[in-house]
Amino acid sequence: MKRFLLLFCLSPFLAKAQATLSLSECVSLLAKNNLIYQQSNLQAEAAQAQLRQTRSQMLPQISLGASQSVNIGRSIDQYTNAYIDQVYGNNSIGLNLQTPIFQGFRVQNQIRQGVLLKESAEENRTAVLNAQTVLLMQGYVNVLATKALYESWTDQVESSLTQVDRISKQVNAGTVGANLLYEIKAQLANDKFSQVTALNNYRTARLALFQRMNITPDDQVEFEALAPRDSTLTAANAIDIYEDAQKSFPEIRSAELYRQSFSYQVKSIKALNYPSLNLSGGMGAFYATSNKNLDYFNQLNATRNGSLQLNLNIPIMGRWLTKPRVELAKVQERQAQNTLDVTNQILRQGIELAVLNLQTMADRYASATGQVESLTAAFAVIESKMNAGIANSYEYSLAKANLAKAQGNAIQAKYDFLMQQRLLQYYRQGNWQGVF
User: Fold this and answer.
1) How many domains does the chain contain in total?
2) Which tens digit of pLDDT belongs to each residue from 293-337?
3) Does position 342 have pLDDT exceeding 70, yes or no?
4) What is the pLDDT confidence band of residue 434, given thresholds at 50, 70 and 90?
5) pLDDT digits over 152-179, tens only?
6) Are strands 83-85 and 88-102 parallel, antiparallel or unpaired?
7) How many CB atoms lie within 10 A of CB 29?
8) What confidence tier does 211 reach under pLDDT thresholds 50, 70, 90?
9) CA torsion angle for 144, 147, 151, 156 (degrees, to 10)?
């Protein structure tokens, strides 16, 4: 019973226990909360709504109308068409129909353009999410790297504290001079300053990641470590990756669809030069209080009438108005082609850089790891000499500083390498499956 009460009392605190977020969970939060991605969602919805609006132009327009009027003084009787001089009321109702029959395929081409614009907006939505995911992944890796650097400097501080404690005991015993203690304390102060700087970098990286996901920062949240990938690519693969990416990357498809849409815009503008045919019709009836012989419904039945019209419109000087619009649309199509070329160029250069960076980061990581191993062994020798009293503080501080720098380089190289592995895997696949 006591254990049950204890667990019940601690349950609110256990609910707030430290949580761990993986990279894939962070991407899910990004897709849910990121405002830049939400903006692209709204643009895609707007393109869909615009397409529905364009398609509605093919539908017939049907309207029902009614009016009520009061006539005072000399006027024409709506029922007999004779002049009368009295106050009387008039009520009329009508049903009207209008539908296009032929408009030079103007609306059809607008619909085709709208379909392409809708598909382009949907591809752009995916492209925006991919771009934000890359930035998120960079921020995620930066959090892991700055945390590892902070932990490394914390170990350096612990090592310096141990040395300060040992030297303090030797000074108190009179076996070494006080100047050695001051030099070691100076080294401790430098390590603490680097530790504080690393902690600030870590906190800044965490804040940036939370802001990228647009969620409230939480100091209790930790981020899951990333495992290295076994796959490696060479520079010879860059052109193959780019050729595959051209077929699958949404930013390329979005730019291509947007460019294609202008050809249908040109056709829809030129359709204004063709004859158009429209069908219209109507049916109505009215009631007038001046007719005392028939009641309301009998008057409506007696006055009902209808009409059906076929209207043909042939433009004579329409090309003078449409020609500038066609020229503008063609210029916009060339601008869209240039945007497509720029998008292809950015993608190709990004892949080339990613391939080169992967090789560079792999070499740097291997070199930095070897450097850490060598300097760790060298520092161990200096530290043992220091403990034996046959090494001076300068040698100790220099070896410690070199080791700390090498460890920092190794940590940064490691996470740069992890980032490049995932980025190149994304370029090679064209999607995020298995990347996280």
Assistant:
1) 2
2) 888 888 888 888 998 998 888 888 777 788 898 999 999 999 999
3) yes
4) confident
5) 999 889 888 888 888 788 778 776 667 7
6) unpaired
7) 16
8) very high
9) 110
71 plus 120 within the same structural domain: no
The answer to whether residues 188 and 157 touch, using CB atoms and an 8 Å cutoff, is yes
Q: Which residues of 195-219 are buried (b: 16+ CB within 10 A; e: fewer)?
A: beebbebbbebbebbbebbebeeee
Helix 250-270 with 238-248: angle, nearest 10 deg: 50
Which DSSP letter does residue 346 get? H
* pTM to 2 decimal places: 0.80
Most distant pair of Cα atoms in the chain: their distance: 134
Domain at 133, CATH number:
1.20.1600.10
Expressed as residue numbers, the domain containing 45 is 20-59+103-274+317-429
What DSSP letter does each residue of 179-213 carry, written as one string?
A: HHHHHHHHHHHHHHHHHHHHHHHHHHHHHHHHHHH
Looking at residue 245, what is its pLDDT?
87
Q: What tokens does 286 get?
A: 């009215």
Residue 383 has pLDDT above 90, yes or no: no
Closest CA to 314 of 275, 277, 262: 275
What local confidence, expressed as pLDDT, does residue 230 receive? 60
Copy the structure tokens of residue 61: 């327009």
The mean pLDDT of 63-87, rounded to a whole number, is 83
Q: Which residue has the tokens 């460890």?
A: 407
| One domain for residues 329 and 379 | yes
Amino acid letter for position 97: L
Nearest 5°: the CA angle 123, 126, 132 is: 140
Question: Long-range contacts: 353-358, Cβ < 8 Å, 24+?
Answer: 354/420, 354/423, 354/424, 354/427, 355/233, 355/234, 355/235, 355/237, 355/238, 355/241, 355/424, 356/235, 357/416, 357/420, 358/232, 358/233, 358/417, 358/420, 358/421, 358/424
| Residue 307 bridge partners (DSSP) | 282
Same domain flag for 34 and 86: no
* Cα 410 to Cα 145, 353, 382, 403, distances in angstroms: 10, 21, 21, 10
Q: Kindly tell me if the per-residue pLDDT of 53 is higher than 60.
A: yes
Cα–Cα nearest to 146, from 400, 416, 398: 416
376, 403 contact by CB (below 8 A) = yes
- Both tokens of residue 202? 């870590």
| Average pLDDT value over all residues in the chain | 85
